[in-house]
């Protein structure tokens, strides 16, 4: 029995060392699998009650994959960036913005925004993502280069639509 206990302790030590190695910053152990090579070939579908964003192949009508955003998120709408790199959505229950990397179908960033975000838009150059939050009368501006919130603009009256003119 003593031998078994010592063996288990040693195994736990090795696992701890391996875990520390795997989580060291700057070490890439595996590249992300590319799931979408042509963003124009997919339809983005918001599944509000299952808290995910699905990606469907236009030609086959089959789901390529989906990205689960978390419990009680309730995404309202989604939009793909002009370059096809990102899909963004706001979670009306979580009061957060979700940024998905399209090629790998991975959740790249979650950012706190105004209360109950709904409608959104990208700036014409794709540099900024504007997220409207009608329940607290704000629009949040997110820089798509750094994936950070740069500004929250108050003073609106239920901003339900954000549109840029050409």
From TrEMBL:
InterPro entries: Haem_d1_sf, Host-pathogen_enzymatic-act, WD40/YVTN_repeat-like_dom_sf
Name recorded for this polypeptide: Uncharacterized protein
Organism: hydrothermal vent metagenome
């Amino acid at each position: 029995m003593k031998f078994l206990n010592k063996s288990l302790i040693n195994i736990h030590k090795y696992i701890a060392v391996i875990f520390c190695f795997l989580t060291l910053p700057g070490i890439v152990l595996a590249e992300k699998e590319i799931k979408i090579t042509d963003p124009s070939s997919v339809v983005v579908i918001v599944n509000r009650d299952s808290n995910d964003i699905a990606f469907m192949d236009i030609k086959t009508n089959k789901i390529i994959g989906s990205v689960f955003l978390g419990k009680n998120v309730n995404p309202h709408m989604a939009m793909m960036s002009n370059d096809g790199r990102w899909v963004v959505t706001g979670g009306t229950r979580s009061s957060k913005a979700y940024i998905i990397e399209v090629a790998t179908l991975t959740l790249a960033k979650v950012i706190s925004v105004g209360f109950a975000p709904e409608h959104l838009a990208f700036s014409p150059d794709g540099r900024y993502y504007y997220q409207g939050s009608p329940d607290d009368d704000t629009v949040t501006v997110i820089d798509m280069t750094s994936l950070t919130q740069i500004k929250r603009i108050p003073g609106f009256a239920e901003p339900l639509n954000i549109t840029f003119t050409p």
